[in-house]
Amino acid sequence: MPRPELALVDGFERALINHRLHMVYQPKVRLRDGALIRVEALVRWEDAEFGTVPPSRFVPLAEKYGLIEELTQWGLRTTLRQWLKWREQGIDTCLAFNISALSLEQLDFPDLVERMCRALDVPTDRLVIELTEGATLPLIKLMDTLTRFRIKGIGLAIDDFGTGYSSLMQLRQLPFTEVKIDRFFVSDAVTSSDSRLIVKAIIDLAQGLGLTATAEGVETVEQLRLLHELGCDVAQGYLISHPLEPNSLQDWKLDFRARWPALIDDEDLELWSHVESDPLSQR
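Request: output the structure for the sequence above.
Response:
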């Protein structure tokens, strides 16, 4: 193991053992009315020696060096306990939690998740497990594990949809309940006719299969209004909210409720006036 990597792994393991990781939560809203319907739980690690270490760096290390199971269980327990605190405040929302593909290699993993929900009195239908599209490529072989989640009432979302090579096959064969449209297409959709058509096609495909269509990375009013017009179900991104500390959710909810009418009011907005004509033949 390279020395810098060894130091980072050691630092991460100590942070995990000593409870120096923490969770933040990014709201997702229903585009029909702006209501909060779910929060995505995101793990954060800020270290005195290494600074802010992104999940894209430490999660692969946790997978590589056998720490992913401990990280996943800690994250789930923390998130489910936070749900109980929100419920006491009158916030009854759903939770989205990212799972490593390695965890799904254990056939009894859905049983573990269900036991954790029952132990904390969190209904399983309040939980959605998110998997990246890249991670699902080998998961066709793990159909039994994914199906067990659905039997228990736990939802399954395919993340970053549209960036992999077997997207349609994944939707056809795996028991997903939600499709998350990759932020690349969302960011481009207002100015690119190709991206707009792709976003519309994913929305129609998802809804035609009885799935929820969620747009990631919504950062501008124009993107939000376009997604609303295209009939997308759910949106998340910095325009709606950055990831929040758990105690900030109640105040955000009240503030966003006041902001929503102005965000979605598309009177006199010309969404298509600057759309490029960029057919594939011109690339």
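Residues 268-283 have pLDDT under 50 and may be disordered.
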